[in-house]
Amino acid sequence: MDEARVVVQRLERIEELAQEGAPPSKVLAELRVLVHEAEAWLRAEPEPGEAVAAVARCRTALGIGAEGAEVMPLLR
């Protein structure tokens, strides 16, 4: 599944940035993109289960609000 591959690649990039000592703002930007990519993956899954709640918690923790609000209704 392409969506899953994208998420895994983003996680690897975030890990590399952390290991390189990238500024927190750069890592945070990648985490925000990760949330959106994870949402795309969930939309592609026939039964995402508890993953929907996990993505919602990530969005809340990252402070993603109005600019991403159109995505979450698709997951409900």
List keywords for this structure.
single chain, 76 residues, mainly alpha, 74% helix, disordered C terminus
Task: Sketch the major β-sheet.
Answer: none
Measured by DSSP, the beta-strand proportion falls in under 5%
Measured between the Cα atoms of the first and last residue, the distance is: 22 Å
What is the tally of beta strands?
Answer: 0
Average predicted confidence as pLDDT: 76
The dominant shape is: globular
Radius of gyration in whole Å, from Cα? Answer: 13 Å
Q: What's the order of the H and E elements?
A: HHHH
Low-confidence segments, given as residue ranges, are 66-76
The helical percent reads over 70%
What does this structure look like?
By secondary structure, the chain is mainly alpha-helical. It has one domain (2-75). The chain is 74% helix and 0% strand. The protein is built from 4 helices and no strands. It has helices at residues 2-20, 24-44, 51-62, 72-75. α1 (2-20) runs antiparallel to α2 and α2 (24-44) packs antiparallel against α3 (51-62). The longest helix is centred in the middle third of the chain and has 21 residues, at 24-44. The two termini are 22 Å apart.
Describe the structure concisely for a colleague.
With 76 residues, this protein is mostly helical. It is 74% helix and 0% strand. It has one domain (2-75).
Which helices and strands, and how do they pair?
Elements: H1 2-20, H2 24-44, H3 51-62, H4 72-75
Helix pairs in contact: 1-2, 2-3
